Amino acid sequence: MPLQNVDRQGGKQYGKLKHQQSITLDDINKEFLEDEDYKDFEDLEERLNAYKDQFMEFDDDNSGDIDIMELKRMMEKLGQAKTHLELKKMISEVDTTNSGTISYHEFLNMMLGNKHSVLKLILMFEEKKKQKESPRGPPPKRDLSSLP
Fold first, then answer.
1. Positive or negative CA dihedral for 129, 130, 136, 141?
2. Residue 124 domain-assigned?
3. Residue 85: inside a domain, yes or no?
4. pLDDT band at 35 (very low <50, low <70, confident <90, very high)
């Protein structure tokens, strides 16, 4: 069910819309959890929830698809600005229905599949970069007994 033609004012209506989108994406996640092809993945449920959050963050118009402008904003936010042709190529690598957009099903197939698309590599790189952030603040105090 596409979530188009929506008033973009925010507030309660926006919250309801995001909640409905979350329920829809949770249903798709359940399909992947029950699919025998994906049963060997470690932490599949956690990964699916992370992918859902990532998808919802970049689906600005809550349509259920990531279009070329949303992908452009995603790449800019990740510091990986791309040309229009590069964006179209990234979508075509993932888009199996020739809709010109990336649906959540296609997004999950890309992230969990063996095929390496440019978008998948960028998102995986950004995820690893977030995990290895250096600690902030002053270093812990050490005494002589903690030295090697």
1. negative
2. no
3. yes
4. confident
- The CATH number that applies at residue 90 is 1.10.238.10
Cα gap 59→78, rounded to integer Å:
15
In-domain check, residue 148: no
In a domain, 128, yes or no: no
Amino acid identity for residue 127 in this structure: E
Against a cut of 0.90, is the pTM above it?
A: no
The single-letter code of the amino acid at 43 is D
Count of structural domains within the chain: 1
Question: Whole-angstrom Cα distance, residue 48 to residue 53?
Answer: 9
The model's pLDDT over 47-96, given as tens digits with 9 standing for 90+, comes to 899 889 989 988 888 888 999 999 999 889 888 888 999 999 989 988 98
Q: What's the full length of the chain, in residues?
A: 148
Q: What is the DSSP string of 47-95?
A: HHHHHHHHHHHH-TT-SSEE-HHHHHHHHHHTT----HHHHHHHHHHH-
Q: How many helices (H) and strands (E) does the chain have?
A: 6, 2
